[in-house]
Amino acid sequence: MNNLEKLIASTLGVRTSEVRDELAYNSIPEWDSLNHVNLMLAIERQYETTISEDDMVQLITVAAIRGFIAGMLGERP
Amino acid sequence: MNGRSLRSGFLCSRASHPDRPALIVSDRTLTFAEVDYRARQWAHGLLESCTHPPQRVGVFAYRSTESYIGQLAALYAGATFVPLNRKFPPARTRKMIQAAELDAIILDEASATQLAEVLVDIDKIPALLFPAGGAATSLTGTKVLDCAALSDLTPLRELPAVSPFQTGYLLFTSGSTGQPKGVPVTHANVLYFLDVMAQRYQITPEDRFSQTFDQTFDLSIFDVFLAWNGGACVCAMQPLDLIAPARFVANHGVTVWFSVPSLPALMRRKGTLVPGVFPTLRLSLFCGEPLPRQSAEAWQTAAPNSIVENLYGPTELTIACFAYRWHPQSSPQLCVNETVPIGRPYEGLAAIVVDEQLSPVPPGDDGELLVAGPQTVPGYWHDHRRTAERFVTLPYVEEPGLRFYRTGDRVRQLPNGDYAFLGRSDYQIKVLGYRVELGEIEAALCQDDAVTQAVALGWPIAEGTAESIVAFVCGYDVNTDRILTRVRGKLPDYMTPRHIYLLDEMPLNANGKIDRKALLERLTRMA
After folding, report:
1. Which of the 8 DSSP states describes residue B305?
2. B239 at the A interface (CB within 8 A)?
3. Cβ contacts (< 8 Å) between B246 and chain A: which residues?
4. What is the dihedral of CA B308, B312, B10, B247, to 10 degrees?
5. How many angstroms separate the CA atoms of B223 and B234, rounded?
6. Which end of chain B is less crowded, N or C, counting CB atoms within 10 A of the terminal residue's CB?
7. Given CB atoms, is A24 within the 8 Å cutoff of chain B?
């Protein structure tokens, strides 16, 4: 999951060390609505998937994103 | 005006449709009667808690029932409301409270957590009302009404009279010298605007309005008071809803959409602005930043039953003063720089395009837009110098003494009579629709002792609007982390630089001034 942390860090413009499970949308200035969309797009590109609006409102923490990707890859989160 | 004020429309709707929904916040719906009851109780609380009739009441609440009903309660008490935002740094809120000389503040529970920090060093603490709880028990030297005390109060029966020329609301916008500027808007100013809107859009009690703007942004006045004037329902959008607008509109059956153009741009970027995704919308309005042609086209296809309009207007001209209706066949050809025109001024407003000497330019030439009429506010709050600079009379117009507001926006009148927005003539920009004076950011950066020069720029730019701010600084032993921490404590998120780049020296142009264009070119190369 290091790739995911790097992806989130580079999209939001934060240090990788700040990407903890509890980091959430709107909890830091960098994770605003614009960057949330950028993050969803980056995940779609990286993992070759599509994220709907219904999914976008669920994927609002690092933990939730981790779980989503694990589920997609058939891995344990 | 016949004694009308900003609260009059709501009172009429309350009398005609008491049981219709007026406000939806999260999963809670309140009728006109329920909103009215609470507003009258809190208005009673305002009158009880102040030693004299309150003149200005802060509403320190964010997208909660308190943030909407608090504004109405202030109006019911005959006061001006002053929106405050817990997303701003506490130091900024403190400056606004002091500058506005508030008599009282209505708070929601989340905002109350900031209170101790906000009230530090305030000369005179206003009375505090906590309708939702969160009352600070340790405060002394001021009157505090908690939710129990407020709910024991009888609703105010007779509302204090209000003159149309009194200030209805006082908003603060970014100031170029480092201090936010207060803009007082009278009841007469905003009623004129709302009357024009009601005539133009024919709002009915069946309508449901999106409420996308923060309430410290004057466009939110349209969302709330135009809806209530027409007996319609305000559907408050929470931060999560802003990332999934189609879902929100469908769930609430929204008929009237109003947002910054950044929202459709976001949907286009994500690929969710698809044909027919907004079947319930009958009216889609955009304002606050340039509207790209592609966004107008995509939105019209996504909302096939909707009128689509681009609105324009600074806070000093009361919310919006120009409108352009999108026509799929003819409008694309009228776009300038791929941007939808801003259209024409509302009836009763006068517009003129001038050069640097304030002389009118020939038709079709570029120049600064000046606007006069009933929507022009009296001036800036406690700032005669800046008022005299920006509100001017022109010796060559027919009506002597007519006050024009200098917008600072560069425009051109097109052959068909519509106006096109070309950009700014100063260092004010928009970031996701928010007005930002780059000078305010630069002033905050220069407060660090190590910084000798600072330049703030909007970056990256997408479709004519900045997505965030970056800064370049020069100095000695500069610590960019320390600067950022300090700036975060002073400025709202949208004004805080995402990156600060350290330079040995600023590039200069041929006139010896800092070459901002060269800095932008540097950013382009780095991208």
Report:
1. T
2. yes
3. 53
4. 40
5. 7
6. C
7. no
Q: Which CATH architecture has domain B429-526?
A: 2-Layer Sandwich (3.30)
Contact: B243, A41; criterion CB under 8 Å: no
User: What CATH number does the domain containing A49 carry?
Assistant: 1.10.1200.10
Q: Which of B239, B244, B432 sits opposite A53 (nearest CB)?
A: B244
| Residue B206 · residue B230 · CB < 8 Å | no
CA nearest neighbour of B502 among B485, B517, B484: B484
C-beta atoms of B240 and A41 within 8 A: no
Paired tokens of B436: 């930002």
The Cα angle at residue B513 between residues B510 and B518, in degrees rounded to 5: 75
- Sequence-distant (≥ 6) Cβ neighbours of residue A49 within 8 angstroms: A43, A72
The residue among B154, B130, B157, B152 whose CA lies nearest residue B143 is B130
pTM of the full structure? 0.90
CATH architecture of the domain B29-186 equals 3-Layer(aba) Sandwich (3.40)
Strands (E), B337-431: 344-345, 350-354, 366-372, 391-393, 403-413, 419-424, 428-431
Could you please report the per-residue DSSP string of B466-502? ESSEEEEEEESS--HHHHHHHHHTTS-GGGS-SEEEE
**DSSP code of residue B17:** -
**Subunit contact B272:A53, Cβ cutoff 8 A:** yes
Host domain of residue A33: 2-73
Q: What is the full DSSP assignment across B78-114?
A: T-EEEEE-TTS-HHHHHHHHHHHT-SEEEE-HHHHTT
Q: What is the DSSP string of B30-90?
A: EEHHHHHHHHHHHHHHHHHHSSS--SEEEEE-SSSHHHHHHHHHHHHTT-EEEEE-TTS-H
Which tens digit of pLDDT belongs to each residue from B207-236? 999 999 999 999 999 999 999 999 999 999
| pLDDT tens column, B433-457 | 888 988 889 989 988 888 888 999 9
Residue B428, SS3 per DSSP: strand
Residue A41 with chain B: CB contacts under 8 Å: 269-270
- Any A CB within 8 A of B465 CB: no
Q: Does A25 touch chain B (CB under 8 A)?
A: yes
pLDDT grade, residue B2 (50/70/90)? low
Sorted by where each begins, the domain ranges of chain B are 29-186, 429-526
Of B239, B244, B262, the CB nearest to A56: B244
Q: What total number of domains does chain A contain?
A: 1
Q: Say whether residue B432 is in contact with chain A using an 8 A CB cutoff.
A: yes
User: Which of B63, B88, B240, B266 is most worth mutating to test chain A (most A CB atoms within 10 A of its CB)?
Assistant: B240
